Amino acid sequence: MSTSKMAGKAAKSKYDPQFTDQVIAATGPKAHPRLAQIMPSLLRHLHDFAREVDLTVAEWAAGVDLINEAGLMSDSKRNETGLLCDILGLESLVDEITSKLLLSAGAESTATPSAVLGPFYRENAPVLPNGSSIVLAARDSAWYREAEPLLAHISGRVVSASSGKPIANAVVDVWLAGPNGMYEQQDTSQPDMNLRGRFRTDADGKYVLYALRPTAYPIPLDGPAGRVLQLLDRHPYRPAHVHFIVGAEGFRALTTQVFDREDPYVKDDSVFATKDELLVDFKKRDGDDRAHWSLVYDFALCET
Ligand code: BEZ
Ligand code: FE
After folding, report:
1. What is the superkingdom listed in this entry's lineage (predicted)?
2. What is the Å distance from ligand 2's center to 181 Cα?
3. Is 294 found in the same domain as 183?
4. Distance 187 CA to ligand 2 centre (A)
5. Phi-psi region for residue 155, left (φ > 0), alpha (ψ -120 to 50) or beta?
6. Confidence (pLDDT) at 77
7. For the residues 289-301, what does the mean pLDDT come to?
8. Of 18, 19, 67, 168, which alpha carbon lies 20 to 30 A from 283's?
9. Nearest ligand to the C-alpha atom of residue 89
């Protein structure tokens, strides 16, 4: 038996050996079926954890306070409890589990992998014609001057993961943070819906837009998630990325992100969301006064 398993057994025997079974047995016959299925496992892991680390009342109370504080900070613009889950890898893990459960058989190798939604998505981004720019900030603003060297042409196709055929009329919903590391709803220097847009693919499955080459940014540090990062001696940075939700009739909507391969944080994402297939290369773009960089990326969707 491994040392940690032995430690767990020894810790268990110090405490009432019937306690966890008693708590599990309190579930009644009319319990919600999914909860009745999963709660015994949750209770065993939770209780074993407390026994294994000899969790004290003061430590448990500090954890309760932290979760309460995160809840009180959360509203329609901020999801601090979600952020706590993110830094613990939980959103990335459930995203992997969900996509494995939903992927049609055989599509694992061809479908574009998903990645976490994150807390900064906004519904109802402007619907724009292909070829438009989502950089809405005024050209004479300080924000635009910082952003200008990063102007990027982003294009690609949306295809079926099973047949490889293009999907016309797919909706590509895209959003990203500015060069100051902030999304527009966090930042009064950006206009409403800056760096957000929805585009429809043409008959060849193609989408085209102008945006920015993304910049790495720290997740918000002024709440419990930031405190936990500091206590764990961890950095808060997310590698430079662009978010997408790609949907089409008859296909499963894909929530994902693409990551700039040149960003050092791709190997050390504070929310553990990077995947090799989602690393992309921004290339220098010549002869286009609207962009200095270009990215070509195709999305492969699974049928429903
Ligand atoms: C984001 O990419 O926007 C994000 C994801 C998880 C936590 C914080 C930010
Ligand atoms: Fe993001």
Report:
1. Eukaryota
2. 9
3. yes
4. 14
5. beta
6. 75
7. 97
8. 168
9. 1
